[in-house]
Amino acid sequence: MIKVLVADSHPIVQQGLESFFKPSTELDVVDSVSTTNELFEYLTSHTPDLILLEMDIPEVNGITALRKLKKEYPEVRVLMYSAQPEDVYAVSTLRAGAHGYISKTASLELLKEAILKVAGGNMFITNELAQRLAFDESTNKPRKYFRRLSTREVEVLKLLSAGKRNKQVAEELGLNEKTVSTYKARLMRKLNVDNMVDMLQQAKALELF
To answer: CB 3.0-4.6 Å disulfide test: which of 2, 74, 85, 179 passes with 119?
Structure first.
């Protein structure tokens, strides 16, 4: 029986997943946590086989939490899930060490398939995402810029798009303000814009944040 820990800030999601998987003979939702503090506190005394980790879980963003998980609990498999666009965040989370990525718009049957695949030692991304990533970038110019971004650049852009100032971004990601400014300059260059307003408008227009 695969032991699954759900890390999601929404009680309805937690209870819904517990109810759906309750009859399963293959996996068991052993518990749910709502924040990253609760997640790491839970892991001090429990060892699930797999963590279903929400990208936008409170306190520390999902990619930062993922990095800490990989460092402190390398034996635990992590499947990231989010309502954010797959072709932006899936690549970033996989680079950061996730074993798979699935959208919150996916069916519960597909979620089960993803959990079983990741718990079995494999990676998981949807067929649709695999096709998009393999598609000729010249026909998908707006999105191709975002696939060029590093995991850390995506984190910085996400926080800036949420209205956070350099100091707040630096504190959340464990960086100094000068480094954040460097990331901002790099983002503008990679996204082919010359000011912050255009950079954030481009991200929001593409529904990336």
So the answer is: 2
Q: Round to whole Å and give the CA distance between 148 and 54.
A: 23
Rounded to whole angstroms, the Cα distance separating 209 from 199 reads: 12
Residue 139 CB burial class (10 angstroms; 0-12, 13-18, ≥19): exposed
Which candidate, 117, 80, 120, 122, places its Cα nearest to that of 101? Answer: 80
- Read off the pLDDT of residues 70-122 as tens digits, 9 standing for 90 and up: 999 999 999 999 887 776 678 778 878 899 999 998 999 999 999 999 999 98
Q: What pLDDT does residue 202 have? A: 65
Q: Considering only CA atoms, which of 29, 27, 31 is closest in space to residue 41? A: 31
Structural domains for the chain: 2-132 (3.40.50.2300), 137-205 (1.10.10.10)
Judge whether residue 2 has pLDDT over 50.
Answer: yes
